[in-house]
């Protein structure tokens, strides 16, 4: 594994092919309070590229062009948050999308454990370390441990997509999954405008616990 670290933007000459694994790191998990810090990317080749964005200007034209390219599928785990934060801070819509967490929820109905660590352990036999999950991602200088953790969140997404696609086809749920992926920009917009914790499809419109 090689981790490439880029300040402010992705170099223009990097080609990820027709699909790229994507993850983000923010200072926290609030779509109101916390800014985007890092964007991690992988072509599924055991290498990772980490972009430390400028948190004042978010001036990163190469990164924005890649993530908004309609010919490149973006593979996320829990795309709902990443799509929202990228829309808010980079001003882009990430489509098309494949979300391993949504796919897992549709085919691994025998469990309620759909975290990335759980998927990698069961489907790939890989045990991810989450030691750096709570970390200061806004720091100007990032440790080797932080970079390794950030990279690990994208290195296995292509393989998970392959396995989960097979299961979606087996269960006849691919069309349902694609409908969920297509709804993600709208779901992100709802989250950003205040409906993050309210189930608008519920008769009672109660907040979700």
Walkthrough of the structure:
The protein has 209 residues and is α/β, with parallel strands linked by helices. It has one domain (2-195): Nucleotidyltransferase, domain 5. 41% of the residues lie in helices and 16% in strands. The protein has helices at 61-67, 79-90, 100-107, 116-124, 144-155, 157-171, 174-195, and strands spanning 2-7, 19-26, 36-42, 47-52, 73-76, 97-99. A six-stranded mixed sheet has the order 1-4-3-2-5-6, with helices on both faces. The longest helix is centred in the C-terminal third of the chain and has 22 residues, at 174-195. The protein is globular. The N and C termini lie far apart (39 Å). The mean pLDDT is 94.
Shape: globular
Architecture (CATH level 2) name: 2-Layer Sandwich
In the predicted model, the low-confidence regions spanning at least 5 consecutive residues are: none
Strand segment count = 6
Structural class: alpha/beta
Largest sheet: 6 strands, mixed
Report, as a whole number of angstroms, the end-to-end distance: 39 Å
CATH superfamily: Ribonuclease H-like superfamily/Ribonuclease H
């Amino acid at each position: 594994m090689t981790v490439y670290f880029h300040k402010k933007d992705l170099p223009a000459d990097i080609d990820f092919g027709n699909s790229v694994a994507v993850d983000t790191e923010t200072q926290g998990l609030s779509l109101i309070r916390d800014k985007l810090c890092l964007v991690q990317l992988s072509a599924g080749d055991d290498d990772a590229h980490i972009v430390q964005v400028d948190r004042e200007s978010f001036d990163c034209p190469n990164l924005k062009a890649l993530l908004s390219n309609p010919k490149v599928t973006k593979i996320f785990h829990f795309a709902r948050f990443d799509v929202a934060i990228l829309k808010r801070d980079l001003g882009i819509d990430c489509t098309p999308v494949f979300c391993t967490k949504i796919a897992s929820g549709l085919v691994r109905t025998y469990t309620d454990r759909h975290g990335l660590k759980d998927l990698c352990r069961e489907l790939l036999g890989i045990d991810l370390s989450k030691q750096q999950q709570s970390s200061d991602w806004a720091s100007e200088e990032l440790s080797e441990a932080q970079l390794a953790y950030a990279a690990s969140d994208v290195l296995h997404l292509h393989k998970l997509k392959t396995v989960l696609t097979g299961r979606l086809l087996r269960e006849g749920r691919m069309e349902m999954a694609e409908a969920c992926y297509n709804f993600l920009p709208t779901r992100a917009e709802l989250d950003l405008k205040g409906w993050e914790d309210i189930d608008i499809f519920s008769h009672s419109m109660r907040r979700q616990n």
